[in-house]
């Protein structure tokens, strides 16, 4: 926890670059901190991008505040895992006892339930339909979901439902699960498909 205190001090002193590097060095090679290391590396890339924008006068205060907040959240998660017995960094030196085995009666975090998964041609992302008829994309690094569209009833009996974006753009989904759009010439084009769970 002393290392995370130093990271917090560096953030407070506006030494973001040093805080990010100390965080990456601390997490690099740690057994159970791959997700935190990925988040720290992402913050390093955000910091580099901010510095480039700042040189040209385009950097915004909200960007740097977002990086600071993310670094503090990563530090807080390291402390939480350390206090709950999860390894977050390599042992300092010498032989240490292995971490305790997982407790099977511990409740696992509840995974969100989805009723369908949408795949689009040439799009590596997967989109999920929630029971509330929201369509979300899930960031694989953070497991954070973002609402991108809604599932609404179709007025056309040839289609099961409509994949409706907030700007009014839409795709039709037929009863077989094919997602249909229109090409530049106004002709129907299959954009992807839906897999129901």
Structural summary, described in words:
The protein is built from four helices and eight strands. The chain has two domains: 2-83; 116-196, no CATH class. The protein is elongated. Helices cover 35% and strands 24% of the residues. The chain starts with a helix and ends with a strand. The longest helix is centred in the middle third of the chain and has 23 residues, at 61-83. It has an eight-stranded antiparallel β-barrel. It is α+β, with helices and mostly antiparallel strands. Residues 87-95 have low confidence and may be disordered.
Distance between the termini: 43 Å
- Tell me, what's the shape? elongated
Largest sheet: 8 strands, antiparallel, barrel
Can you count the beta strands?
Answer: 8
User: Which structural class do you get from the secondary structure elements?
Assistant: alpha+beta
Low-confidence stretches: 87-95
H/E element sequence = HHHHEEEEEEEE
* Count of domains: 2
Measured as a percent range, the helix fraction is 25-40%
Strand order of the largest sheet: 1-2-3-4-5-6-7-8
Number of DSSP helical runs: 4
Radius of gyration: 23 Å
What percent strand? Answer: 15-25%
Average pLDDT figure: 79
What topology does this entry show?
Layout: H1 2-12, H2 16-27, H3 34-55, H4 61-83, E1 116-120, E2 126-129, E3 134-138, E4 145-153, E5 159-164, E6 170-174, E7 178-182, E8 188-196
Antiparallel strand pairs: 1-2, 1-8, 2-3, 3-4, 4-5, 5-6, 6-7, 7-8
């Amino acid at each position: 926890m002393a290392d995370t205190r130093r990271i917090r001090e560096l953030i407070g002193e506006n030494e973001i670059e040093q805080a990010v590097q100390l965080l990456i060095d601390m997490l690099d090679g740690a057994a159970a901190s791959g997700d935190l290391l990925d988040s720290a590396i992402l913050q390093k890339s955000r910091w580099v991008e901010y510095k480039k924008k700042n040189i040209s006068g385009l950097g915004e205060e909200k960007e740097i505040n977002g990086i600071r907040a993310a670094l503090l959240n990563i530090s807080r998660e390291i402390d939480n895992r350390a206090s709950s017995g999860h390894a977050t960094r390599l042992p300092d030196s010498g032989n240490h006892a292995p971490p305790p085995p997982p407790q099977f009666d511990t409740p696992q975090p509840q995974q969100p339930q989805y009723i369908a998964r949408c795949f689009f041609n040439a799009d590596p992302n997967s989109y999920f339909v929630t029971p509330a008829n929201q369509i979300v994309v899930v960031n694989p690094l953070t497991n954070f979901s973002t609402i991108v569209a809604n599932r609404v009833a179709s007025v056309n009996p040839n289609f099961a439902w409509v994949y409706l974006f907030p700007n009014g753009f839409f795709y039709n989904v037929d009863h077989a699960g094919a997602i249909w759009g229109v090409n530049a010439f106004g002709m129907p084009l299959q954009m992807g498909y839906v897999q129901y769970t």
